[in-house]
Amino acid sequence: MTETTSGPARGSRAKGSKANKGLRIERIHTTPGVHPYDEVEWERRDVVMTNWRDGSVNFEQRGVEFPGFWSVNAVNIVTSKYFRGAVGTPQREHSLKQLIDRVVRSYRAAGEQNGYFASAEDAEIFEHELAYAVLHQVFAFNSPVWFNVGTKQPQQVSACFILSVDDSMESILDWYKEEGMIFKGGSGAGLNLSRIRSSRELLSSGGNASGPVSFMRGADASAGTIKSGGATRRAAKMVVLDVDHPDVEAFIETKVKEEEKIRALRDAGFDMDLGGDDIASVQYQNANNSVRVTDEFMKAAEAGEKFPLRARMTGEVVEEVDAKALLRKMAVAAHVCADPGIQYDDTINRWHTSPESGRITASNPCSEYMHLDNSSCNLASLNLMKFLRADDSGNQSFDSERFAKVVELVITAMDISICFADFPTEKIGETTRAFRQLGIGYANLGALLMATGHAYDSDGGRGLAGAITSLMTGTSYKRSAELAGVVGPYDGYARNAQAHQRVMTQHADANTDAKRVDDLDTPVWAAATEAWQDVIRLGGKHGYRNAQASVLAPTGTIGLMMDCDTTGVEPDLALVKFKKLVGGGSMQIVNNTVPKALKRLGYQPEQVEAVVEHIAEHGNVSDAPGLKPEHYSVFDCAMGERSISPMGHVRMMAAAQPFLSGAISKTVNMPSSSTVEDVEEIFLQGWKLGTKALAVYVENSKVGQPLSAKRTEKKVAAEPEPEKVIEYRAVRNRLPKGRPGITTSFTVGGAEGYMTANSYPDDGLGEVFLKMSKQGSTLAGMMDAFSIAVSVGLQYGVPLETYVSKFTNMRFEPAGMTDDQDVRMAQSIVDYIFRRLALDFLPFETRSALGIHSAEERQRHLDTGSYESSAEEMDVEGFAQSAPLHSADAPDAAVPDADAQPTAAAPAPSEAHNSTELVEMQLGLNADAPLCFSCGTKMRRAGSCYLCEGCGSTSGCS
């Protein structure tokens, strides 16, 4: 039996009765007397994961057991990341059944021990329902659960931590230690440094204080060292500073100054790409920075008024600054290097359920978890596409009833985990056990909206997203109140009861005021309204088991585990995806959500097929046959010709935020044409629309991005024309549309690349294209710009031998062995390129004078003492017409998918290793992302963090 995602739910209503009576668990998906495993067809697979750069095997385990409907990528990631035991030993897990049993049975045992279930039968139903939901990719716990639960190591279940630091050296050193231990365990932490006195204040000894920015250097170095000590991911950390701190300007400028340093080092020849070898010499690169702003500051900035900076120890005003100018500095810095982000302090604390126990001052590294200092949050996310159903007539609906029951099940499990969880510090353990913060969320929102015919940036899209979020959080707090009636409220509830109930009322009021848009969101809003009514009623009676219930996390690795097309609250990356195939190989395939969307919009099967074929060929829907222009926006994505506007991202965040306990992990992508004023406006609108935090990224703003030839040409064209004078100049001899050429692959010192050399029909090299295989975006960009310069020079008559004489023997890294028999060693990539060009295009006499010979010529010299050449060796005519490298214009063959949807597919280009690289190649764009430390492929954004689709590594904390 295969997975089922539609049809009526069989009910899963857990009733909270009198204290210590336990919960009655009813079934959702399972059948009495039948284990979920017995309803699935299992198969054996071999998992072999390689590093694409050198072909080395990163991981290998053969004969693993998974359901047949699990994708290759999901199988690879779960096997390599989550199976426990040494590979090659009998103790190594080899089946998904073992993984699920290890975790789910631990949850059941803890639930029974702590009085959560009314009977053994209820405990068994709980176990089976939880196993079914994981097995069918309906939801997933965050990674620490799969790493640790049911093993002999500490049972850490949380991915997100918030620390605290006070104004003392002892506390600062404790911060370094606690943060380091969290990084060592593969998690992330955030904290606010605003309690540390500024560099403009005095120490008790009379000297000047160092200020928080100076202590950030030590923490940054520690994070970088721990990362480089063998971890496959960067340390994830967040540093926050209040806007009224006297050192706030220095804090804002930390990364801007380092960006200038990066540019200088790059220009001097150092590898300063994201993930490059020399980037470690630059400071402040291991943390996300955010400024915590208040309503008072934002109002002053909008009105152009003064704003006071206050001493940390006395509260006295140190200086009054122009608020608008300070906000502008934040925007300038964010425009240059994406930092700092912004967090809205008053908005955050208005929704705080436990203010009597302390303010919310910071967040986790990805900005979605916000609660008390020295606390943690364990996450779990639901796959929204599993709740999209269609009737016999093809009418779609969101299964809100079954969704609510799964939320109840997952929240129950998440709360149980706190009963047995271990924590990195005792302070974090005490706070978490006292407040029991949870972070349920979802993934695949972007796919769901497209599949239902909603544009991401539309009232309908925001309406459905808001309704689902409201239902999720309302149901979570309803279950939390039921749990409080069974096992008691959280320890801090009594002190915060009034505030907690006030926040519940705020959520309920926002739900009431929300706009109902269409037939899809209206029923979900109705279910959410009923849930919030139960929350108020049951919470008033029992209190709540959890101080926090929901967040929207990046859902990085677990999103891949659930085979989600989109992460967290993000839109789709692009319409064409990279897909691995069973048995090896890969293909590019049009998203399965596209046909669903077209069907929802009323297109006939033959029209759907035509649009899908157009997307497969062009990568977008512009001018697709038969597609109405008013429907184009449904298929807008994060990247590409029709990318979603920055405010579209902000408006989506604002639609979901009133229905979340925490916040949203998301970066607002902005085009390279965006100005500082545009960034400032995004900051202002984020505050006005009620979001809790924002980060922006302006395309191509960071140094770790390839240079844009188009932008350079535009700049030159915009310059005023010089005064006309008569002078003699060389005339550019452009190549004809059809030109002979040759493409050569090469490797120099482990760096892979391709060179396409095109010549004039009557002989003579006319242009060169260089493509570095993801060695680093800066290197690839410089090679691209370099090849353009050489090509233009050739077309203006610069002899090839001049280039060869100038550029051969240039020495810089990467250098070393090559895979070319004729050029076995190269002192640099440039040295190799011009030796190869000389061999292919220069006459024997010319290159012989330059000391450049082929392997055959060198052998002949050894045999005969002469370099005599033949006409064949010097012939450069007759090269086959070569197609543009990595062309996406080849026709794609239709391949039927499992659902018999009209999905066009084609072999993935050989240089694409995941969807991000495929999008870059097809659309000519450069994604802001580092290379994966584990497998070398380019990562993709997932919320405020990065995710590797190849091996599941993340730069975040989920």
UniProtKB/TrEMBL annotation:
Q: Which UniProt keywords apply?
A: Cobalamin, Cobalt, Disulfide bond, DNA synthesis, Nucleotide-binding, Oxidoreductase
Q: Which residues form the Ribonucleotide reductase large subunit C-terminal domain?
A: 158-697
Task: Supply the InterPro entries for this chain.
Answer: RdRp_reductase_class-2 (IPR050862), RNR_2_N (IPR013678), RNR_lg_C (IPR000788), RNR_NrdJ/NrdZ (IPR013344), TSCPD_dom (IPR024434)
Which reactions are catalysed by this chain?
a 2'-deoxyribonucleoside 5'-diphosphate + [thioredoxin]-disulfide + H2O = a ribonucleoside 5'-diphosphate + [thioredoxin]-dithiol
> What species was this sequence derived from?
Streptomyces gossypii
Q: Which cofactors are required for activity?
A: adenosylcob(III)alamin
Record keyword Membrane present: no
Where do the Ribonucleotide reductase class II vitamin B12-dependent N-terminal domain residues begin and end? 47-137
Record's protein name: Vitamin B12-dependent ribonucleotide reductase
Q: Which GO terms describe its molecular function?
A: ribonucleoside-diphosphate reductase activity, thioredoxin disulfide as acceptor
Regarding protein family, the annotation reads: Belongs to the ribonucleoside diphosphate reductase class-2 family.
Q: Where is this region: Disordered?
A: 1-23, 885-914
Q: Where is the TSCPD domain?
A: 739-839
Q: What is its EC number?
A: 1.17.4.1
